[in-house]
Design goal:
Blueprint lengths: L3 E4 L1 H5 L10 H10 L3 E5 L4 H7 L7 E5 L4 E4 L2 E5 L4 H14 L4 E7 L3 E4 L9 H7 L3 E4 L11 E8 L4 H9 L6 E7 L2 E6 L4 H12 L6 E5 L5 H4 L4 E5 L4 H6 L2 E3 L6 H12 L2
Parallel strand pairs: 1-2, 1-12, 2-3, 7-8, 12-13, 13-14
Antiparallel strand pairs: 3-4, 4-5, 6-7, 6-9, 9-11, 10-11
Helix pairs in contact: 2-10
Amino acid sequence: MLKLIATDMDGTLLNDAKEMPENTFEIIDQLHRRGIVFAVASGRQHLSLQKLYNEIKDDIMIVAGNGSIIIDKGEIISIETMNFKIVREIVETVEQLQMPNLKVIICGLRSDYMFEDNITSVMPEYLVESHFPIRTIIKTLDDFPKDEQVLQISINDSEFNSQKNIYEQLKHLEGKCHITVSGSEWVDIINAGVNKGTAIKKLQEMLDADPVETMVFGDELNDYEMMQQAYYSYAMENAVPKIKEVSNFTAPSNEDAGVIKILENFLAITK
């Protein structure tokens, strides 16, 4: 019997319009009543996920920032914060690239921080609102609050070529931090040794669950370690090849509500 189900958000649970299937909360409720923990495991920030799932926050776990923070019933149960020297090195490296298509967001515990001048590309307003609902504009890193904790740095590429424009330019920093491609327009940077897989392992230990009692869904490279942490690992039909290679099963695409279809089938055959 399953004890833990975890799903990525963008490109997995959500369709390309960033919408959840209509019966998502109903399915989560059914899982909750059966004693199965449902976790959202996303590269998005906890502030965004808490807002999106506020209605059912007591029924789910949130793994945000690619595993840098885990929240259970609104309470932080695990947090991994970045050394500010590494944060400064990353930001200065991006600035030196002088690529106006890149925008750096420093994701803190209380707010997300965006630069006013030095990195000037503009993300669509709907993307800013959905991903960074609580945000602070700063001019330079010197304006960053001294008592704030940094969970993740997210870099947006308006040219939709994050692998070449961001990852290839920063991969020399691997070891000091963990750099992962989260989609064609995103690269996320967190502490070295931290990822969705390490977060899922923490949840498994807390729930006394092993991989055979765990189901996960993903589509992008930031899901790679998570897929290896569960026997019931479902790559979305729209997943990148490397995720399909490491997964044991395939789910219909995110545009076809693949996660919900698999869960509906699971609930139907395990009554």
